[in-house]
Amino acid sequence: MFTILNLFKKNYEPRPIFAALGTDMHCHLIPKVDDGSKCDEESIDCFNSLKAVGYNKVYITPHFQYPRFQNDEDDIRSRFATIKKTAAEAGVEIELAGIAGEYRIDSGFKNRLESPRFLKIADKYVLVEFSLHQQMMGCDEMIFDMQMKGYEVILAHPERYPYLGVQGSRMEQLKNQGVYFQINVLSLGGFYGDDARRKAYEMLERGWIEFMGTDLHNTMYAQALRDLSCSRKVEKVLEKYEFMNKTL
Fold first, then answer.
1. Are 245 and 21 a contacting pair, CB within 8 Å?
2. pLDDT attached to residue 6
3. Which residues have C-beta within 8 Å of that of residue 158, sequence separation ≥ 6?
4. CATH numbers and ranges of domains, the chain
5. Going edge to edge, which strands form the sheet with 95-99?
6. Burial of 247 (0-12, 13-18, 19+ CB in 10 A)
7. What's the confidence (pLDDT) of residue 10?
8. pLDDT in the model for residue 8
9. Does the pLDDT at position 83 exceed 70?
10. pLDDT: is 22 or 67 the higher one?
11. pLDDT digits (tens, 9 = 90+) for 116-143
12. What is the spatial distance between Cα 155 and Cα 186, in angstroms, rounded to a whole number?
């Protein structure tokens, strides 16, 4: 029965619709440093998938999260150099443009602010995230402190925080504060659920989204991205809205 069913299964080839963005600025493809890629081979497979759907450049952004992922910036730079060399030897065609980080605003973030060593996207932007479960007191104040120190702040995947509503005042306050928003492209296809998808489209309609990222972690995400590249609805989003990815 499995063989018969497979005869009728449609196999869609990935389409390079994300060439409209050019650059992926959020993914977890340094092996063995967070909840992303587990090995060189998985990272290479994901790089090839990014190229297949149209990306020509990628910034890798491993988690910096206390106490779960207590990564060190110097170590991450070294690991990036290693995977970049490995990818080149494997014939990967996408450009590994740089290493940055996804910094969780958590109980250890205030200490990090006192002696900042942030890895920045394109030497300019710091990617931050909130907890996916509950709001931490003082997040907005710490973002303001970052801005006062001269950092350009991007908030990762605001559509995924269940306690942040598009209609609420807090998202609007963050936008008025000058925080850039980055949504995950897979949210547009419902990868994280209906609520995240709905909020992603609402924020697009409000003109609140400057960046889109894949947040690619592993080959399962990569397959979902390849499938999403066949979506005409997502292609229309890329045609309708202007994003800052190509400035990176």
1. yes
2. 43
3. 164, 171, 174, 181, 182, 183, 199, 203
4. 29-247 (3.20.20.140)
5. 23-24, 57-60, 95-99
6. exposed
7. 53
8. 43
9. yes
10. 22
11. 899 999 999 999 999 999 888 889 899 9
12. 16
Q: What are the angstrom distances between the C-alpha of 173 and each of 133, 141, 177, 215?
A: 20, 12, 6, 25
The one-letter amino acid code at 126 reads V
The pLDDT value given to residue 4? 43
pLDDT, one tens digit per residue, over 171-217 is 999 999 999 999 999 999 999 999 999 999 999 999 999 999 999 99
Closest by Cα among 64, 51, 149 to 109: 64
Q: Which two tokens stand for residue 6?
A: 């497979």
Give 130's contacts (C-beta < 8 A, 6+ positions apart): 104, 105, 136, 139, 155, 161, 164
* Token pair in block for residue 4: 């018969």
Distance CA 101, CA 126 (A): 7
List CB contacts of 218: < 8 A, sequence separation 6 or more. 36, 37, 38, 42, 46
Three-state SS string over the chain comes to CHHHHHHCCCCCCCCCHHHHCCEECCECCCCCCCCCCCCHHHHHHHHHHHHHCCCCEEEECCEEECCCECCCHHHHHHHHHHHHHHHHHCCCCCEEEEECCEEECCCCHHHHHHCCCCCCECCCEEEEECCCCCCCCCHHHHHHHHHHCCCEEEEECHHHCCCCCCCCHHHHHHHHCCCEEEEEHHHHHCCCCHHHHHHHHHHHHCCCCCEEECCECCHHHHHHHHHHCCCHHHHHHHHHCCCCHHHC
Cβ neighbours of residue 84 closer than 8 Å, sequence gap 6 or more: 96
